TrEMBL record:
The keyword Transmembrane helix applies. It comes from the Bacteria. This is Branched-chain amino acid ABC transporter permease. Its main location: membrane. It is found in: Cell membrane. InterPro entries: ABC_transp_permease, LivM-like.
Length: 326
């Protein structure tokens, strides 16, 4: 009998169900720290999913994607500093700013490929990083405390449980909308451009326009993650948009699995949970974490989500073998 259980469907659903129950467990166990830890996982999952749209599906290796995480965070921090706590204003300003910066960055970088594209995205991120460092009114290199969280009418993101479920809802929306997007004509074009851009243009598709739209959507989504992150930490810092932060997002996507949307969720969860575990063991946790990432990538070149597919194939073969022997 053919195995009916699909691990690549069942495991994501189980992970999402587990994430949905975190606030209840944190309350029951009287461990509010879990809300902060898993809140980080959910927020960085949103950022990683946004990167996967252009990296996993479009083949655009952006080494400055954390720029938009930082922009979203600074929108909340600066507006709160001036007494504006309206969440709709925070959200609108985040989307508008990230769309503008994403459009400018995309127009310049998408005319190139390979190393040139990587360096241009990195240069823009570093430019805004040093701009944030130079803004002494907003804390400069020391960062800026967020005095008031985003308020949507009577609902405020100062409440950890409300913030967590808001971020979780955004994550679910991103995974669902992302899947619909890449399965549509739009996704077919950016995937085709990744394989052979010249051929797609010969077929009449304006690939630059499609890739630019994908880049802007990715930037805006990552900006929303930054907005949520500022509410989670009650603090913003230039470090949010540093090149190291962009590198961490790439690791999350690659570790989870490129071009899968749910892979980055697995990658974010694995990376942050292992990081937290190792930090409790030693202050030199990066020495251990680096080789672990290398081993994980070597074991499954398609990431953790790809590993589920490999396991599915092996279990199916064993089931067919057992059925044949019977």
């Amino acid at each position: 009998m053919e195995m009916k259980l699909n691990l690549r469907t069942a495991v994501p659903l189980l992970v999402l169900a587990a994430l949905a129950l975190v606030p209840l467990y944190a309350t029951f166990a009287q461990q509010p720290f879990y809300l902060t830890l898993f809140g980080r996982i959910v927020v960085f999952s949103i950022a990683a999913v946004s990167l996967d749209l252009i990296l996993g599906y479009g083949g655009m290796v952006s080494f400055g994607h954390a720029l938009y995480l930082g922009l979203g965070a600074y929108v909340v921090g600066i507006l709160s500093y001036h007494g504006v706590d309206n969440g709709f204003v925070h959200l609108g300003a985040t989307l508008l700013l990230c769309a503008i910066v994403g459009a400018v960055t995309g127009l310049l970088s998408l005319r190139t490929t390979g190393i040139a594209f990587i360096m241009i995205t990195l240069a823009f991120a570093q430019m805004f990083y040093f701009l944030a460092v130079s803004l002494k009114q907003y804390g400069g290199d020391d960062g800026l405390p967020v005095s008031a969280g985003s308020r949507f009418g009577s609902v405020t993101l100062d409440d950890p449980a409300v913030l967590y479920y808001a971020a979780f809802a955004v994550l679910c929306l991103c995974v669902w909308a992302g899947r619909r997007l890449v399965d549509a004509r739009f996704g077919m074009v950016i995937r085709g451009a990744r394989q052979n851009d010249r051929r797609m243009r010969a077929l009449g598709y304006p690939t630059l326009r499609y890739k630019l739209v994908a880049y802007i959507i990715s930037a805006m989504t990552c900006g929303v993650a930054g907005m949520l992150y500022a509410n989670l930490t009650h603090f913003v810092s230039p470090a949010y948009m540093a090149w190291t932060a962009s590198g961490e997002l790439i690791v999350m996507v690659v570790l989870g699995g490129l071009g899968s949307f749910f892979g980055p969720v697995l990658g974010s969860a694995a990376m942050l949970l292992i990081e937290e575990w190792l930090k409790g063991m030693t202050e030199h946790w990066m020495i251990i974490f680096g080789p672990l990432v290398v081993v994980a990538v070597l074991v499954s070149r398609r990431g953790l989500y790809g590993l589920l597919g490999d396991l599915q194939v092996r279990l199916s073969r064993r089931a067919r073998t057992a059925e044949g022997k019977a």
